[in-house]
Automatic annotation (TrEMBL):
The keyword Membrane applies. Keywords: Hydrolase, Membrane, Signal, Transmembrane, Transmembrane helix. The lineage of its organism: Bacteria, Bacillati, Actinomycetota, Nitriliruptoria, Euzebyales. The chain crosses the membrane at residues 555-577. Gene3D superfamilies: TolB, C-terminal domain. Residues 47-386 form the Glucose/Sorbosone dehydrogenase domain. GO terms for molecular function: hydrolase activity. InterPro entries: 6-blade_b-propeller_TolB-like, Glc/Sorbosone_DH, Quinoprot_gluc/sorb_DH_b-prop. The keyword Transmembrane helix applies. SUPFAM superfamilies: Soluble quinoprotein glucose dehydrogenase. Residues 1-27 form the signal peptide. It comes from Euzebya pacifica. This is Putative glycosyl hydrolase (Putative secreted protein).
Length: 584
């Protein structure tokens, strides 16, 4: 009797694990693409944020609480570093000292909010130099000025010492820092003393959020960095935050996103090589255009613009994709919170995919316009009086825009309803080789993540680099049947590996998850080939019918094809699972 009951419980548990694979898809009346498999590689990440895949297949993952983790193709996991970060939520956080996920390693008063490490980028010569770049919040940086200094017309520090809208300290900003570190490629460890600080941005620290942090190399070797509007969503009722009151500057994205003099709500472009060339002497400023062969940034000659601005007018640009074939940026822009339009305020919230053309210089509208250039109304936050709609002249409309529920304001009805968190992803140009490359139907497609809905959507990249954004093209495969990629749980970053697979880091349970996952999307039925990762790289032996976390993770997920039976056999002890060592 006990044995039978145990077997039934195992089967129920297995079925419970299988159902979520299609949950996001079924909610949108779509099906998982049977030509793509999902494999969970590791499932013990704490609040993961970003990842990079090296040419030898090792995957480096950052976490909001400061951890850097390295996963190798043989299943070995190494804790590479624990970088001290300022991740405090100064308005009251989700964690206190007692339940902090890192136990005694957490500082006193620890409250994990939106700070931490949010960006990672490997140097082009990473496999020989071990150099990588991290974008993170600097511990104890409250009140510090960033380097380079803010422009005179950037959003000022809030100076309301009476406490009506600003902290009594007067200076409510801290610092985001871009630094170079060096990894020991044999040990997979990062000596924090190798840090070379390069570039900083301000961070409004008492009224979080929307900080950005994605990074990519452009074809010319300059670095692209995303930043959010650094403007709270709590004081604008889910509509446009353009507060005119002097003591409420933290509630105005008009002073950040829409302001070319401020580095927030932007895509920034930085000449890292010029910065690094001055490390033995006066530090170069890293403004593109100072070196031969590097085109200047679009606003370099404007004395009222910050010289690093490449494109502006974004709300929460957390992740983007870059196509080296077309030099376009494809940005995920998380929208505000209003579920319905308001005649005094403006449209309901839309999340967006935005396209920045080569050379940048575009204004994407926030906080004055949204979606396909639908204007908000001018609004007096002191009196509550509404004014005329803003002008959207000269602003670049979104390529894709959608709402919380199907709406006449968005043509993408096949997306259905759900939470809205549009993130960027990868411009997938299918490699000529690679044992795990996605099917040909995904070649030259932009793949982007919907964090809240657990989905990956895709649409074709046209020859000129624009997106084929017709509703019929969204998630259409070669035969015209709409498929989503296998269901994910809060995907937050993705990158293409040397094997042609797409590696995804999932929060898996929300913003404060302690069970984040590293997952791989690959062609169905395919198996890794060590030749894709270079000489001497070992790969993990995997069961042919089940996808199982390789490092002490137990039963993690099921392949869409033939996986259920294999997982049942594993659960019942009928199939041995090989585990690898863990170094954390």
């Amino acid at each position: 009797m006990t044995s039978t009951r145990t077997t039934l419980l195992v089967l129920v548990a297995v079925m419970a694990m299988v159902v979520p694979l299609g949950t996001a898809a079924s909610a949108q009346s779509l099906l998982p693409d049977p030509s793509v498999d999902k494999e969970v590689l590791y499932g013990e990440l704490i609040s993961p944020t970003a990842l990079e895949v090296a040419p030898d297949g090792r995957v480096i993952v950052t976490s909001r609480e400061g951890q850097v983790t390295v996963w190798e193709q043989d299943g070995t996991v190494t804790r590479a570093a624990f970088l001290p970060v300022d991740a405090y939520d100064r308005q009251g956080g989700q964690f206190d000292v007692e339940n902090c996920p890192r136990g005694e390693e957490c500082p006193a008063g620890f409250n994990l909010a939106e700070g931490g490490i949010h960006g990672i980028l490997l140097a082009p010569d990473f496999m020989t130099s071990g150099e990588l770049y991290l974008y993170y919040t600097v511990a104890n940086s409250l009140g510090m000025e960033p380097w380079p200094p803010k422009m005179p017309n950037a959003r000022p520090f809030c100076d309301d010492t009476a406490g009506d809208g600003c902290p009594a300290s007067g200076n409510d900003e801290g610092i985001w820092r871009l630094s170079r570190f060096t990894m020991d490629l044999d040990a997979n460890t990062i000596d924090l003393s190798t840090e070379v600080p390069l570039f900083e941005n301000p961070a409004e620290w008492f009224y979080c959020c929307h900080y950005g942090g994605d990074m990519e190399w452009r074809n010319d070797g300059t670095l692209l960095l995303s930043t959010g509007d650094d403007t709270t969503s709590d004081h604008s009722s889910g509509y446009s935050p353009h507060d005119q009151r002097a003591d409420w500057t933290f509630n105005s994205a008009a002073l950040t996103s829409a302001n070319p003099a401020d580095r927030r709500g932007k895509v920034l472009r930085i000449d890292i090589e010029e910065l690094e060339s001055g490390l033995d002497g006066p530090l170069g400023d890293g403004v593109p255009g100072d070196r031969p062969g590097i085109d200047p940034n679009p606003f370099l000659d404007d004395p009222d613009a910050d010289p690093y601005v490449y494109a502006y007018g974004f709300r929460s640009l957390y992740r983007f994709g870059y196509s080296p074939e077309t030099d376009h940026v494809y940005a995920g822009n998380v929208g505000p919170d209003a579920r319905n339009p308001d005649p005094t305020r403006g449209p309901a919230a839309h999340d967006e995919i935005e396209v920045v053309p080569p050379g940048g210089g575009t204004n994407h509208g926030w906080p004055f316009c949204i979606a396909d250039n639908v204007p908000y109304n001018e609004y007096d936050f002191a009196t509550g009086a509404a004014g005329e709609p803003f002008s959207c002249a000269g602003m670049t409309p979104a390529a894709v825009w959608y709402t919380y529920v199907p709406s006449t304001t968005s043509p993408y009805v096949q997306m259905g309803g759900g939470g809205n968190t549009a993130l960027g992803g990868v411009a997938y140009h299918r490699p000529d080789d690679g044992a795990l490359r996605l099917p040909e139907a995904y070649d030259d497609h932009f793949l982007w993540m919907e964090y809240s809905r657990g989905a990956v959507w895709h649409m074709p990249i046209a020859d000129d680099g624009s997106l084929d954004n017709s509703p019929a093209s969204l998630n259409a495969t070669a035969n015209g049947i709409p498929f989503v990629l296998p269901g994910l749980s809060n995907p937050i970053d993705m990158a293409t590996g040397p094997d042609g697979a797409v590696y995804v880091v999932e929060s898996n349970g929300g913003w404060n998850s302690i069970a984040g996952r590293l997952t791989r999307l690959q062609c169905a039925g395919c198996t890794p080939d060590a030749a894709d990762y270079g000489d001497g790289v070992e790969i993990l032996d995997r069961p042919a019918v089940a996808s199982v976390a390789g490092v002490d993770g137990g039963l993690a997920s099921v392949l869409p094809t033939a996986g259920l039976l294999g997982l049942v056999l594993v659960a019942l002890g009928g199939l041995g699972v090989r585990r690898r060592r863990r170094v954390i």
